[in-house]
Amino acid sequence: MSTEMVLISKEELENTIKSVIDERVKHNLAVFAVQKEKEKEKGKKDRYLTSKEVRAMLKVSRSTLHRYRRNGVLPSYKMGGCVRFLHSEVEKVVENFNKYSRFQSN
Protein backbone atom coordinates (compact mmCIF):
# COMPACT_ATOMS: atom_id res chain seq x y z
CA MET A 1 0.00 0.00 0.00
CA SER A 2 1.57 3.24 -1.05
CA THR A 3 0.91 6.64 0.43
CA GLU A 4 0.93 9.67 -1.74
CA MET A 5 1.29 13.22 -0.46
CA VAL A 6 -0.43 16.04 -2.23
CA LEU A 7 0.47 19.62 -1.57
CA ILE A 8 -2.30 22.18 -1.68
CA SER A 9 -2.37 25.79 -0.67
CA LYS A 10 -4.01 27.07 2.46
CA GLU A 11 -6.73 28.73 0.37
CA GLU A 12 -7.47 25.48 -1.47
CA LEU A 13 -7.74 23.65 1.86
CA GLU A 14 -10.08 26.32 3.29
CA ASN A 15 -12.24 26.26 0.15
CA THR A 16 -12.43 22.47 0.22
CA ILE A 17 -13.41 22.48 3.91
CA LYS A 18 -16.03 25.21 3.33
CA SER A 19 -17.43 23.31 0.38
CA VAL A 20 -17.74 20.06 2.38
CA ILE A 21 -19.34 21.89 5.30
CA ASP A 22 -21.78 23.70 2.99
CA GLU A 23 -22.82 20.40 1.41
CA ARG A 24 -23.34 18.81 4.85
CA VAL A 25 -25.35 21.76 6.10
CA LYS A 26 -27.56 21.73 2.97
CA HIS A 27 -28.06 17.99 3.35
CA ASN A 28 -28.93 18.29 7.05
CA LEU A 29 -31.38 21.12 6.33
CA ALA A 30 -33.07 19.03 3.67
CA VAL A 31 -33.34 16.07 6.04
CA PHE A 32 -34.70 18.36 8.76
CA ALA A 33 -37.31 19.80 6.38
CA VAL A 34 -38.49 16.30 5.44
CA GLN A 35 -38.72 15.29 9.11
CA LYS A 36 -40.73 18.43 9.95
CA GLU A 37 -43.11 17.70 7.08
CA LYS A 38 -43.59 14.12 8.32
CA GLU A 39 -44.27 15.40 11.84
CA LYS A 40 -46.80 17.86 10.45
CA GLU A 41 -48.56 15.07 8.53
CA LYS A 42 -48.46 12.83 11.58
CA GLY A 43 -50.09 15.57 13.63
CA LYS A 44 -52.96 15.67 11.15
CA LYS A 45 -53.54 11.97 11.52
CA ASP A 46 -55.57 10.38 14.26
CA ARG A 47 -54.64 10.88 17.87
CA TYR A 48 -55.95 9.43 21.11
CA LEU A 49 -58.11 11.54 23.41
CA THR A 50 -58.71 11.25 27.14
CA SER A 51 -62.18 10.80 28.61
CA LYS A 52 -62.08 14.41 29.78
CA GLU A 53 -61.37 15.67 26.25
CA VAL A 54 -64.16 13.54 24.80
CA ARG A 55 -66.67 14.68 27.45
CA ALA A 56 -65.81 18.27 26.57
CA MET A 57 -66.24 17.60 22.83
CA LEU A 58 -69.56 15.83 23.29
CA LYS A 59 -70.74 18.01 26.19
CA VAL A 60 -71.75 14.95 28.20
CA SER A 61 -71.25 13.79 31.77
CA ARG A 62 -68.87 11.08 32.92
CA SER A 63 -71.73 8.60 33.33
CA THR A 64 -73.10 9.34 29.85
CA LEU A 65 -69.69 8.76 28.30
CA HIS A 66 -69.40 5.49 30.23
CA ARG A 67 -72.83 4.45 28.93
CA TYR A 68 -71.74 5.26 25.34
CA ARG A 69 -68.66 3.07 25.83
CA ARG A 70 -70.62 0.23 27.44
CA ASN A 71 -73.31 0.25 24.73
CA GLY A 72 -70.79 0.44 21.87
CA VAL A 73 -71.87 3.90 20.73
CA LEU A 74 -68.30 5.10 21.10
CA PRO A 75 -65.38 2.67 20.73
CA SER A 76 -62.67 2.98 23.37
CA TYR A 77 -59.23 1.55 23.97
CA LYS A 78 -57.44 0.64 27.20
CA MET A 79 -53.86 1.86 27.15
CA GLY A 80 -51.80 1.26 30.26
CA GLY A 81 -54.91 1.13 32.41
CA CYS A 82 -56.29 4.37 30.94
CA VAL A 83 -59.25 4.63 28.60
CA ARG A 84 -58.58 6.46 25.33
CA PHE A 85 -60.70 7.32 22.30
CA LEU A 86 -59.64 7.89 18.70
CA HIS A 87 -60.35 11.45 17.60
CA SER A 88 -61.70 10.31 14.21
CA GLU A 89 -64.17 7.93 15.86
CA VAL A 90 -65.40 10.65 18.22
CA GLU A 91 -65.90 12.95 15.21
CA LYS A 92 -67.94 10.24 13.47
CA VAL A 93 -70.19 9.92 16.53
CA VAL A 94 -70.64 13.71 16.60
CA GLU A 95 -71.55 13.70 12.89
CA ASN A 96 -74.05 10.89 13.44
CA PHE A 97 -75.60 12.70 16.41
CA ASN A 98 -75.91 15.85 14.30
CA LYS A 99 -77.54 13.95 11.42
CA TYR A 100 -79.94 12.21 13.80
CA SER A 101 -80.86 15.41 15.63
CA ARG A 102 -81.51 17.21 12.33
CA PHE A 103 -83.71 14.32 11.26
CA GLN A 104 -85.65 14.43 14.54
CA SER A 105 -86.22 18.18 14.41
CA ASN A 106 -87.96 18.01 11.00
Produce a short descriptive summary.
This protein is mainly α and 106 residues long.
Topology:
Elements: H1 10-44, E1 48-49, H2 51-58, H3 62-70, E2 77-79, E3 82-86, H4 87-105
Antiparallel strand pairs: 1-3, 2-3
Task: Walk me through the structure.
This protein is mainly alpha-helical. It folds into two domains: 11-45; 48-105, Orthogonal Bundle (Multidrug-efflux Transporter Regulator, Chain: A, Domain 2). Helix content is 67%, strand content 9%. It contains four helices and three strands; from the N terminus they run αβααββα. It has helices at 10-44, 51-58, 62-70, 87-105; strands at 48-49, 77-79, 82-86.
Key words describing this protein structure:
single chain; 106 residues; Multidrug-efflux Transporter Regulator, Chain: A, Domain 2; 2 domains; 3-stranded antiparallel beta sheet
Describe the biggest sheet?
Answer: 3 strands, antiparallel
Q: Tell me what portion of residues adopts beta-strand conformation.
A: 5-15%
Distance from first to last alpha carbon:
90 Å
What is the approximate shape?
rod-shaped
> How many beta-strand runs?
3
The number of domains: 2
Number of helices: 4
> Given the helix and strand composition, which structural class is it?
mainly alpha
- Helix share bin: 55-70%
Low-confidence stretches: none
Order of helices and strands: HEHHEEH
Oligomer state of the chains in this structure:
single chain
How much is the average pLDDT?
85
Radius of gyration: 29 Å
Strand order in the largest sheet: 1-3-2
Q: At the first level of CATH, what is the class of the largest domain?
A: Mainly Alpha
The CATH topology of the largest domain is given as Multidrug-efflux Transporter Regulator, Chain: A, Domain 2
Question: Architecture of the largest domain in CATH?
Answer: Orthogonal Bundle
